[in-house]
# Entry
Amino acid sequence: MGKVLSAPPATPAEARTLTVDAESAGQRLDNFLFRHLKGVPKTHVYRIIRSGEVRINKGRVQADSRVEAGDTVRLPPVRVSAASAIATPAPARSFELLLEDDALIAIDKPAGVAVHGGSGVSFGVIEQLRAARPAARFLELVHRLDRETSGVLLVAKKRSALTALQAQFKSRETGKTYLALVEGDWPARLKVLDAPLARYLLPGKDGQPGEGERRVKVVDKDHPDAMRAVTLVRVLARLTLPGDASPMSLLAVTIKTGRTHQIRVHLASAGHPIAGDDKYGDFDRRRALARLGLKRMFLHAWRLRFTHPATGEATALQAALPPELADMLPAPARATLDTHDDNDKP
# Structure
């Protein structure tokens, strides 16, 4: 009988400090760590960030913190097993292109696809795009969309383009307009939502605090974790869906700040959750809409305006409402999408 070979035991690592080089400047902390902690499960990477074991210049940080050239990043001891180091490569995948040149790629991201791997997701858009373009020397996400949100997504092909575009997003120089179908009759007077948000974690499977899913809530401006968030809302149509008597509103939503789950939480906190939202909507209502054919959240990154990082020209992109959402709307509501003037005003 042949000898049975077992996997080698996990090997403990020691705490270490990394200095961020110029090539990594501007990256999110989680992406920076993924590259330096090969074989460590992404769920564990997020856990050590949340626990405060990862520090930048001796200060506590979050997964979306940006690293800058010269920063010192402290990495705690982690255990990497031989089995976990053998990762399944992301499959190559192409996405519908809205624009591509030497500086950037703009794609129409489908719903149900994460923009990057992590938190239980092995890979996302960026990993699949890199696999599809093995000769590309540089591909980095400029911004993010929720997994269940479709629409315009930018990917930089050069470091200079990445830093220039991220600077525009940070300074609110971009125009980001989404389409959202919400429950109820949205009040015409409610055009600006200016309510601070804070992130928190649901309890884990065993009731452990801070180990569950990420959530966001509206908080008082004096809350220690409060982040200002501003959302502009314009009603495009008031409608009911075929086979359903409940009033609904189709909104054009422009965000002036890019907080996690900002649109979803702002609209839900106003009493009008997005149709099909599995985190901030009503379960029974979501199930009823699924029977009518709505199998996903009705939120779509529709239009994006920015200054092109290479040419300096004003650039406007639009991703058409995908069929699974457009087909839910009555014809008059769909017609409003062709006449709406996106001018960033409520």
